[in-house]
Amino acid sequence: MFDSISQRLSELGLVLPELPRPQANYLPYKRFGNLVFLAGQTSIGQVLYQGTLSKAEDVEAGYAAARQCGVHLIAALKMACDGDLSRVQACLKVNGYVQAAAGFDSVPAVINGTSDLFVEVFGEAGTHARTAIGVSVLPRDASVEVEAVFAVREH
To answer: Which Gene3D superfamilies does the entry link to (predicted)?
Structure first.
């Protein structure tokens, strides 16, 4: 893993946003031992990606949306680590959901936006198992939603 995750984020030109409070009865993350389960994040916020992806030209925008989802996931992970991302041991699992038209078979290429980001930020610790699923609708018409599970060191 990189010496300083904060330094790596800066090198990538990424600023972690402050996440809004959930609007329903759930948490942005849940710790269980050294595992952190991150609630699904969309790209709505700093960058707005909405609507159904249906053609090859949509993959680039979908990838950017998934990357922004990853930025939001890292922000939630930082909260779960009391502000210290150096505690991250590994990304274990990523589940990505893409609002996709029937026949849109590039869902995995879209979710690569999150997967690639995690490896860029966390190095080998960012590699993970993954599922990429096309769905008919996502909250607030988001194009992409991603959730993840990380292992972190205890205090």
So the answer is: RutC-like
Cβ-proximal residues to 143 (8 Å cutoff; 6+ apart), any chain: 43, 49, 50, 51, 52, 53, 61, 62, 65, 98, 99
pLDDT (tens digit, 9 = 90+) per residue, 17-45?
Answer: 988 888 889 999 999 999 999 999 998 76
Are 107 and 146 contacting, i.e. CB atoms less than 8 angstroms apart?
no
Domain of residue 70, CATH code: 3.30.1330.40
* Tally of domains within the chain: 1
Q: Tell me which residue range forms the domain holding 68.
A: 5-19+27-152
pTM exceeds 0.90 for this model: yes
Contact 68, 126 (CB under 8 A): no
